[in-house]
Amino acid sequence: MMHRSCVRLCMCLILAAQLAAGEEESVKPGPFKAATQLIQEQVESGLVGAAALLVEHNGKIEVEQGFGSLSRKAGAKPCRSDSVFLVASISKPVTAMAVMKLVDQGRIALDDPVQKYLPEFTGDGRERITVRNLLSHSSGLPDMLPDNIELRKRHAPLKEFVSGALRTPLLFPSGTRVSYQSMGILLASEIVERVSAMPLDRFLQREVFGPLKMRHSSMGIGKRKIEDTVQCDLPARGDLRMQDSDASWNWNSPYWRTLGVPWGGLHTTVGDINRLLQAMLENGRPILKPALGESMIANQNAQLDKPWGLGWAVGENALYDGASAKVFGHSGATGTLCWADPDRKLTFVLFTNRPLDNDPGQFLRQVAKAVSDAVER
User: Fold this and answer.
1) Contact, 288 vs 299, CB < 8 A?
2) Cβ neighbour number for residue 30 with a 10 Å cutoff
3) How far apart are CA 43 and CA 62, in angstroms?
4) First vs last C-alpha separation in the chain
5) What pTM, to 2 d.p., does this model score?
6) Most buried residue, 43, 281, 341, 352, by most Cβ within 10 Å?
């Protein structure tokens, strides 16, 4: 008993000496308890059925935790930190990485007209739309096609979405405004496939996921079983309202999970997305030349009405209240959010199964702010 007391006393004395010597802590005591408690409360209330959180600061993973269950069914397996989620629009910067890899190889130029790679993309000012416009949401293309729901209901192949995006009316002349546009990302992915002569998912596996050791990532569900992944709750509001009767085409359907839409079909884990964020903190290394990686997280729309990087969301307060202009990241309609703060070497990845349209309280942003507030600036 005396021996154990002496050991504890020595440890306390060592810690006191370290603090007295001026060792600084950039993280407050019990730093992320408020964030994890927010998640746990939402799970216990039933508002969130599944969640996974990862926080890394200064090269150290501080939190990596799963919450809830893979589905709402009785007896469902627990959701772990390495559970696979359908992350919706976090797919967009991943698709942008594929484009930028071809830019890095000299096979695509950002300021080339899209028409150079997609010759049928003609008329109504389309010849002025550049690859950069597609990635910075300034192309004038719509977010979704007018017949988006009808296409999904009849299980249209991805090529039909591409065909629609090539001829859908523009909302405004390219480069004059900013409007979030999934169809621009779709055409960017079509450029990748035509230039590389390879399906997008295979290109990503070879050029992005493999080098970054993102072993649990695929555009589309891949060889997994849907029941082994997190099941999404369905949006009860918004333009993409879904019901249980929509089981043939909703987010949990075999059709949607296997389609692998480049604007929203990525299946991945919080750990894999953290690897991507860490690469972006290194200006895209080892995937891209540093100048190209840096351009992805720099505002491309300085003269327009809303900032965007190349695939990544940027700008003050863009990802959470109080975020600096240097913070970059993305959210997803299925209930996901990720971001990185280069100044603090801080990354945040939170996946849930609660759709953004069902969350007027902006729960994801609240957790993000709790994490940010826990780390000294």
Assistant:
1) no
2) 8
3) 21
4) 43
5) 0.91
6) 352
Which ranges in the chain belong to alpha helices (H)?
A: 2-20, 33-45, 91-104, 131-135, 148-153, 158-167, 182-196, 200-204, 254-259, 270-281, 290-296, 363-373
| Pair of tokens at residue 22 | 């001026």
Beta-bridged to residue 349, according to DSSP, are 54, 338
> How big is the chain, counted in residues?
377
Give, in degrees to the nearest 5, the angle at Cα 353 between 314 and 179: 35
- Identity of the amino acid at 140: G
Q: What residue type is assigned to position 56 of the chain?
A: E
Strand partners, 56: 61, 347
Q: Tell me how crowded residue 170 is: count the other CB atoms within 10 A of its CB.
A: 16
Angle at 144 between CA 335 and CA 191, to 5 degrees: 100
Give the CA count within 13 Å in the CB-facing half-sphere of 368: 30
SS3 84: coil
Q: Please give the distance of CA 306 from its chain centroid, rounded to a whole number.
A: 19
Among 341, 342, 332, 290, residue whose Cα is nearest residue 93: 332
Per residue in 309-324, pLDDT (tens digit) is 999 999 999 999 999 9
Give me the residue label for tokens 């970059």: 328
User: For residue 313, what are the CA distances in angstroms to 13, 88, 92, 151, 297?
Assistant: 47, 14, 10, 28, 8
How far from 40 is each of 2, 48, 52, 190, 219, CA to CA, in Å? 40, 9, 11, 41, 29
Residue 16 above 70 pLDDT? no
Token pair 């997994």 is found at: 224
Segment 136-169, tens digit of pLDDT: 999 999 999 999 999 999 999 999 999 999 999 9
Closest CA to 265 of 256, 274, 252, 273: 256
